[in-house]
């Protein structure tokens, strides 16, 4: 049946929705991992998530996912209905995570175009045993199991039945052809389609997804739905997939009949539409019309399940957009800004007195600025998801290592550009793993002896400060041992010369050793750290997005790793300068100062290298025009301006011709056809439509050091 | 749906088949299949990029899109000439790489039949790899036109290195 749907669209939707739900699930689980048990809200929520995934995977016919989620749904159904005590909470957490992993794994396969062929048996058995066990315990305590309610809840589509005046009520009966395969899934897809317009929807048989037998019932008896909606019959009919249907009856009923459920539908009201789709005379039909109550499960309360609907609107208010389209929009807005500048600064306007034009153009300028701000904010995403992953890692790793660790998360709603989020996930994961693995002491007694609580604590914090985002991983563990680090670095020959003493280095420099390539000790290679991703890779990744890593630590008190990253890659605050005929942009934050110097303050080495003595200190000196072989540049230092630039505590002085202005610039990559140039990190358009190159201070300095 | 699109594409290709944008560089005329050509624009202010091949003149701003331009004359190892008001930039799209070609003069769009195209004579030219971007000679009217394969024109050792770099980045 899948081929009758628009499979691609549905698949995307399925993957997206389920992905979101699973993320939410993990969020709930990990938040409550340390609690004694889940509260009612959580149980309901997990139940609902499992139910939704079960339903949609059923439609997509991913049976193993359906079975696994169904089983977990059973477990939570039981928890919800019986409120059993003595549920091993940690074990339950693990079970849920196992299911979540399984479904995630299968979804990855689906994404790659493979068949989800994972074997669900083990998980199913595991869950079965678990369920039996918690049930068994309860039986001993003499609490009755509410088995008969078993399938009551899931039949509701969690849409709050808000009856409004123009709501209409329908009774829909679908008869499928006798040879229809999997009529239960078909029926389910019909309910799924109606969900869009339904204010409330009941159907019977109810266990169409979980019970394969229901297919036979549907074939022999027909599939009954009660629908409350504002839509007309035609619309309802168009939504129902009629491919295999023999006959679809839609009849209007009253609200009272609706509330009574299936049992209450006795006589059709005025209108009745019978659409005969098949050649076969509807012989069975009559028989069914008189006995709809037979297979109706009683005690149907339409109002039930209302509370579960609370999360629906949240998801509906979010749409996912292809990043390419966002980029296109961004480019277009960039064009508008340029076009605006071209119009407003048009030389034809010079010297004209145009008050109305000025007013209108001011309005235009305001709107374009706002447009730019909106598109930028659209690219911003909270760090919540990344931090959630970290929770999971702390949970997994600490359990495996037998360490008790509490994770505190601060400021997870801090927003960062999407591109940056993609880049920090891996480095952050590495830092967190390191903290769990090496930071926190293995032996709890050791901690107690040092006057710390037996339980280790890791703090994950994000905050926004001065146009930068700080992401901090802090642990209260061993801390970095300077002596040990120094010796290790020396033994590995990372120090250059062997004669240096530990006193030759500042604390900071010593901590930096761990970021050197090749600095990974044997004891560091465990399952969780040392998977070939060293700290040097972390640093490299962070640097690639214009960020840096700061380390501070105190022995036996703990250490702190701070990632300082830019808010966005796309817009930076830059100073536009000119050298020769070319414009360049330098990120404002890397400019220390501007100075005017005379030829006298320059010291030239015999090999042509130049230095500047500024307030008693020597800085490397670089003429931008010579470095990039620019035409028409100033030669005399006296006429130009010297900028003191800083990158990671290294300074360099650069001679430029003149300063133009400071402004926000939209960073664009250099087209890939032009090969990478050392010292240039990108380009941008200036207000007049011309292009300026963005200087990469790190590249300049690096080059200078080597050269 | 898809069939329609395919058919349209084919139609599109059909009407473009055998059409060549011809331009003058030096005293010779060159042709480039029109299917590569996005548009032709007037000479623009070019922002030079340091430390690149001499024929890569720099970057231009094509309505918000920043694209590199190469001087075809320099690419053909001829001496550069001053740009005049006849100098144009042909914007081509080769496998999603958008590049501007600076040419001295645009000639016209010519229809050249496959049968009129002969491969360039290879006599004694085995070593001159630099010319491999000319894949055929075509006679139209009384002039000979050198047909250029733009993929080879822009793709030389540089681009390959570039691609490797990109792969690494990814």
Overview of the structural elements:
- The complex is a heterodimer of chains A (707) and B (170).
- Chain A is an alpha+beta fold and 707 residues long.
- Chain A has five domains: 2-150, Up-down Bundle (Four Helix Bundle (Hemerythrin (Met), subunit A)); 154-303, Alpha-Beta Plaits, CATH 3.30.70.1110; 323-379; 381-566, Heat Shock Protein 90 (2-Layer Sandwich), CATH 3.30.565.10; 571-706, OB fold (Dihydrolipoamide Acetyltransferase, E2P), CATH 2.40.50.
- Chain A is built from 21 helices and 23 strands.
- In chain A, the strands form five sheets. Chain A has a six-stranded mixed β-sheet with strand order 15-19-20-18-17-16. In chain A, strands 2-3-1-4-5 form a five-stranded antiparallel β-sheet. In chain A, strands 7-9-10-12-11 form a five-stranded mixed β-sheet.
- In chain A, α14 (384-401) runs parallel beside α15.
- The relative contact order of chain A is 0.06.
- Chain B is of the alpha+beta class.
- Helix content of chain B is 22%, strand content 41%.
- Chain B is globular, with a radius of gyration of 17 Å.
- The A-B interface holds A 331-332, 334-335, 338, 581-583, 627-630, 668, 670-680, 683, 685, 689-693 and B 45, 47-52, 56, 59-61, 63-68, 97-99, 154, 158-159, 161-163, 165-166.
Index terms:
heterodimer; A: 707 residues; alpha+beta; Four Helix Bundle (Hemerythrin (Met), subunit A); Alpha-Beta Plaits; 5 domains; six-stranded mixed sheet; five-stranded antiparallel sheet; 21 helices; 23 strands; flat; disordered N terminus; B: 170 residues; OB fold (Dihydrolipoamide Acetyltransferase, E2P); five-stranded mixed sheet; 11 strands; globular
Number of helices of chain B: 4
**Helix content, binned percent of chain A:** 40-55%
Strand fraction of chain B equals 35-45%
Q: What is the annotated CATH architecture of chain B? A: Beta Barrel
